[in-house]
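Archive entry: two folds, one per protein. Generate the first.
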Amino acid sequence: MALTLPDLVALYAGAGRRLYGGEAVSQRAHALQAAHFARAAGLPDALVAACLLHDLGHLLSEQSDDALANGDDDLHQYRALPFLRGLFGEAVVEPIGLHVAAKRYLCRAEPGYRAALSPASQASLALQGGPMSEDEAAAFLARPHAAAAIALRRCDDAAKVAGLVVADLDAYLPLLERLAATTAGNADTPGAGDADRPM
């Protein structure tokens, strides 16, 4: 069942106040910072929305802050997808599903990337499968939304700055409403949503 925009607002107002997986910012602050960096980089609106929503799975799973330290991976990159597919199109949803894979890819592809990750992100990497193999990297790059997922990942990695002042969620609601309306308008198009099937 798809979430509604009021549902998203309520999640960030409630569960979004929790700390973000051992980082020095809340889930809400992390999401807003990621969207901020996406906008600052001039990324498309759909990718700004993906950056805002990329960790929604953590909010839905209600994972505790010490879960990663206890070896619990909530597979957040997949958890939110069924709830978002009815609201947004593939340009928003698919990079979210790939943003953990993008981290694993960058750990293989870019010298120094892994060492630059925050301690919490390095800890979660082990639970998420570690750096990709050569075959995994090739398969990842062949996916239609791989480049968008990499761009999302870079915003994700930057979005952990304690005390950074950025626009609040209200600033993104018109963008989300516009993207949702576009998705609803395409719902009756033959074949619409085919690319949104689970990975």
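Generate the second and append.
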Amino acid sequence: MRCSILSLLMVFVGVAGADSWVFRHVAVVSPHEGVVRADQTVVVSDGRIAAVGLDGSVAIPADAGTIEAKGHYLIPGLAEMHAHIPPMSNPEYLDEVLTLYLSQGVTTARGMLGEPGHLKLRDEIARGERLGPRIYTSGPSLN
């Protein structure tokens, strides 16, 4: 499976421990403007996008990790609005699903059949203790 640049961003920023990461020569998709900007440099510091601009026009922190991204695209995070987040009783499968979301660029998931453990899961992800998309969850199914 080929990971998206966005997924790599999340993994590097969330796990690798570097304070700053730079994506060089990446094409940035801007749905708001309806354009794709080629040959951009994107600087991510402390988990946030700090600068975007034509390659060579953006200051790069000296200690930043660099990802050469020529031929790749950086997109806004995708939202899965009808997710079925696995139960907490199957932690291996749960982690597989959360990893799959991230690897495909899904940074937000709205769970449709919640359980009390999903509240703990949501908080662990928000604190950076576990990798996964931002979770919005519901209560258990009412039938």
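Annotation attached to the second fold: The two ends are 38 Å apart (CA to CA). Helices lie at 5-15, 91-103, 116-126.
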